[in-house]
Amino acid sequence: MITVRCFAVVREILGCDTRSLVAATTPQRASDILAALAGARVADLPKPLLVAINCEHASLTSLVHDGDEVAFFPPVSGG
Amino acid sequence: MIIRLQTEDFDAEREAQALDVKGAGARVSFVGTVRDTAQDRTITALEIEHYPEMTHAELSRIGASAQARHNLQEVLIIHRYGRLACHERIVLVTVWSAHRAEAFAGCQAIVDALKTRAPFWKKEISPEGALWVPGQTPQDLK
Questions:
Q1: Which of B53, B120, B141 sits opposite A55 (nearest CB)?
Q2: Which of A48, A50, B87, B93 has the fewest Cβ atoms within 10 Å of its own Cβ atom?
Q3: Phi and psi of B38, rounded to 5°?
Q4: Could you say which of A56, A59, A76 has the minimum Cβ distance to residue B118?
Q5: ipTM of the assembly?
Q6: Which CATH code of 2.60.40.10, 3.90.1070.10, 3.90.1170.40, 3.40.1390.10 fits the domain covering B2-8+24-128?
């Protein structure tokens, strides 16, 4: 089971806050999980798109393992 | 190191005074506030969203990195989220060090890292509508 979280405009575009995915095979690239989640709407997402795995910055090419939490979000604006 | 994420306001001076940092000869604080204009639009409020589980971890990493690099004796970061009216306080970063140069540099390093690494997103609310504030990307991911 992989937990997927979406934030800010990514959440709005995909209409998805938190979702659990059963991956047939792991590890998978974060980009593969995003493709499964977003389908054709992937083209509507902001670029660059940021990725975090288990609450640490990662990238779309990072590997996601069973039990991981992967998050997709736009560039950040803290402070 | 003290990290707090909260919806309520803070008193920057009271927060800093509450900590008794031994050996410190300098204390530098930064307070970020909600602007009342953006690209000639009047801003009435800011909605701040964050990734709670990651935010605390990332602020801790940012604080620890600055603490080690700039020889800071203590770091305090308070960041608010939720809906804030214009001119309200958003964030407090206070650092303590033996000397002023380290305190200035350490405080700036933390504030800069908040902009590029901390998982917050801001939506500006104006009479014309709501717009997401363009964000930044961690330098090491570019």
A1: B53
A2: B87
A3: -155, 120
A4: A76
A5: 0.94
A6: 3.90.1170.40
